[in-house]
Amino acid sequence: MSSTAYSQTDTSCPPQDVLNRRGKVLAAVVYVLYLGSIMAVVTAPIGVLIAHLRRRSAADWVESHLLFQIRTFWLGALGGAVVLAAWYLLGLIGAPSWVSWVLGYGFFTACLGWTIGRSGVGINRLLNDRAIDAPRSLLFGGATVSLTD
Length: 149
Hints:
Blueprint lengths: L14 H22 L6 H12 L5 H33 L4 H31 L22
Helix pairs in contact: 1-2, 1-3, 1-4, 2-3, 3-4
């Protein structure tokens, strides 16, 4: 009697490996959804929902990626809300329109670079089976960025 389903007595594929593989794929999907949000904003909320739902059932090193992704979304949303409020206040006080445009485009450009950077660091570490060193950081998870090997 042969079964293709995983059983508790099968030693060729221990549960931790299954947990690592499943979590790694989910974390990769979330990074792709975040990068896709550059073109279609709706993919980022889907990504953070997946990260929230799967965070507790992932291996520890994958959980650091999911926490990093959750913080990426919520910090970006918080920054967006602050800039939107500032933009609104600039309109209320009668600031020149170019000030609002500079604020909006500056924030958009910074947020774009920040999201791509965080996703790039996360994907690199995920592909090398490494945890995010500081998933609660505001920048790039404790990664040191250099142009040398």
